[in-house]
Amino acid sequence: MHKKYYVTLLISVSLFVPALVHAQIDSTLFRRAENRDSLNNTMNMDAIYNRPMLSAGKLPISVGGYMEANWQHIGQDGVSQGNQFQFRRFTIFMASTISKRIKFMSELEFENGTKEINIEFAALDMEFHPLLNLRGGIILSPIGAFNQNHDGPKWEFTDRPISATQLLPSTWSNAGFGLYGKHYDDDWMFGYEAYVSGGFDQSIINNEQGKTYLAATKSNTDRFELSLTGQPLFSGKLAARNNRIGEIGISYMGGIYNRYVDNGNVIDEKRTLSVYAVDFNTKIPHIKTFITGEWAWIKLMVPESYTQQYGERQQGGFVDIVQPVLQRKILGWPKASLSLACRLEYVDWNVGKLRETGDNIGEDLWSVVGGLSFRPNSETVLRLNYRHQRSRDFFANPPVLLGGFSFGISTYF
Amino acid sequence: MRKSQIIIGGIIALIVGIQACEKFEPGLPLEDSLLDGPIEGLSLSEMQRFNDGDRTFNDEVFTVEKGLGPLFVSNSCVSCHAGDGKGNPFSTLTRFGQVDETGNQFLHLGGPQLQNRAIPGYQPEVLPPGAAFSRFTPPAVTGLGLLEFVPDDVLLQMADPNDLDGDGISGRVNWINIPSYINPRSGSVSHNGRYIGRFGKKASVYDLLQQTVDALAQDMGISTLYHPIDVYSGQKVDPEISTQRVNNLGFYLQTLKAPIPRNQTDADVIKGKALFTQVNCSSCHKPKLTTGNAPISALAFKDFYPYTDLLLHDMGSGLDDGYTEGTAKTNEWRTPPLWGLGLSPNSQGGKYFLMHDGMATSIEQAIELHGGEAVASRQQYNNLSPTDKAAIIKFLKSL
């Protein structure tokens, strides 16, 4: 029996040949704590004090985070929203090295004040071998790159990419388990991740957006406790990085998304969802232009008798180009930098043709965002953006135009 | 010193920049290119009701949790009337079950409207064998409040059911039974307990409240206090939308502005307008109507230009689908308003889908489909020179 499990494990690992995966955990956050026994002789009433972080004289936990605040002045087809001041995110990291190869990391996020409070990540990592790490808890699905690498201060734009947050549902995390590992070979790094977790629900085709919208599932706060499908969502990624060329990743996420059994009775057909994504990033030598992007394809089963407004196929992505133009002491900051940035975005929410007319379905969007960013240091950014966006409705009628300025600050702490 | 100057300059630029921000945002499309917007003269409180209805009409998407279906045609108002304009074949309705004025014989089989879509797990309705049917493309919804408050007397004066004037154009009102929740307008004319219908392809709807309630129930499967019946099961159910929102939705439809004509000084448009009257299109597509008294002062005693008489006309066998509503005959159709015609492609996906079922993909094709009482006008149009025909088309597109 044990042999069978061992073989299964080996096959799993060999399928996902090792690699570098975008570091979800910054190892510098961890500080080692001495081994301790949490199962000592205490009562339940003592539990609140029986926590590693409260062990006197030790530094078992690291605390950090980031924040993002914006001002924006955006208008759509002549109707301006005026001045809007937004506190987009306040995110707290807490991390602990429980023992040499056991770590815990968490990310607690407050969005728009306290409108949304989410545990975006809270997972225990156990290293058995560099190629074989177990992760369990609330994990981030490794779909695309942005979902895992989403910290505000890393980006030169006040808004997250639309394709990453609305087509793909970043930040998309679920309760689950899985394996990951890395392998280094000179200038090359390879990584893999493979997880099973709770997943989507029928709201992706039954939501107030009136279109297939994966992010609708995020409003289901029961999903960390109860998966209505009873089926796991699988997500996996292979990535390779060359220190001189850059990184490329291919990822997949999929499973059954609808509730098809209720109270033991079959109430619907099983319907599957598949998401494929490719991501890349590179820095052009000498001129230091940084280019990053991702593209995703979504395919799902929608009942034929339902409305075509909920598309069976979607696609979209973004490309960010960041060009540093000044890197020197500025206003007393010794390693400040000034960069120009440009983001190109495209999302097609409904790829296909209308059954009634054979015409292409609209429901698409593209935007160009120009930006100027100033970094007094690598962990803090001030950014000024201008967005021009065109979006068309289901029938591909004349587009709605949206545009305007935004200014934001974001920093790690 | 240089640093301070840069900082001060930066602050000044920032202040100026913020003040000028709106200049860099997309401008308002030309007012005459939009169908959306309130009629002039609403009070502040009326504007609030308009905005509430606007949000329900244009932003609300009904989900299963909000009561959608289980059988439905569409999940929002805007998916049938994008930008308050005409609909696309995607949202064309199928109505069935009535062949004469004795009423709908298929109500027990789901009539009068086919719900051709269903939420997951359910099967949509199918047309019962032997049921006569017709397909109705959603109309534009602008200016409807003005049409609602044209006095019944005016409609009856325009009607000439027996063609007493001998011009080949008759025109009559559709006498309909109205739902119990409708309070007839003051001045309404009744005949054997029936009232004059004026909305819908067959003029089978009395007013915009009835239109709103019917659309919620039959298009989206949303029950209301006015009609607390589930279309799927036929059973009594709780309202799935508040009565206030239903009322405000009706108010929104009443107070949408009339389409604004464009290029009215263009020589071809002026010529086309004259030719339109000359070939007698205006006998049914009456250019001007006037409202009577109305509870919304912005709608009371107003002249407006819808190009309709709101009456039923025999349109010939080519447009006879064998289905009807109210006391209309199967070959009779209510004259559709022509205002906003030129803006139709903006809501229909860049194309025209005209006539009751959207079968005409150009204005010229729509004219050619006119039969019955309209044959003489069609022939006169066909006898015009290509230049004159083009002028009429240009005029129609200017509406």
Automatic annotation (TrEMBL), chain A:
Q: Which InterPro entries match?
A: Porin_dom_sf (IPR023614)
* Keyword line: Signal
Q: Tell me if Signal is a UniProt keyword of this record.
A: yes
Quick one: signal sequence residues? 1-23
According to the lineage, what is the superkingdom? Bacteria
What Gene3D superfamilies does this protein map onto?
Answer: Porin
Write the protein's name.
Porin
Give the source species. Answer: Chryseobacterium lactis
From TrEMBL, chain B:
- Coiled-coil ranges per UniProt: none
Q: Which InterPro entries match?
A: Cyt_c-like_dom (IPR009056), Cyt_c-like_dom_sf (IPR036909), Cytochrome_c_Peroxidase/MauG (IPR051395), DHOR (IPR010538)
Q: Which PROSITE patterns match?
A: CYTC (PS51007), PROKAR_LIPOPROTEIN (PS51257)
Q: What keywords does the record list, in alphabetical order?
A: Heme, Iron, Metal-binding
Annotated Pfam families = DHOR
Instruction: Give GO terms: molecular function aspect only.
Output: cytochrome-c peroxidase activity; electron transfer activity; heme binding; metal ion binding
Outline the extent of the Cytochrome c domain: 48-257, 267-399
> Does the keyword Iron feature in the UniProt annotation?
yes
Any keyword Transferase? Answer: no
Domain of life from the UniProt record: Bacteria
Protein name according to UniProt: Thiol oxidoreductase
Species, as recorded: Chryseobacterium lactis
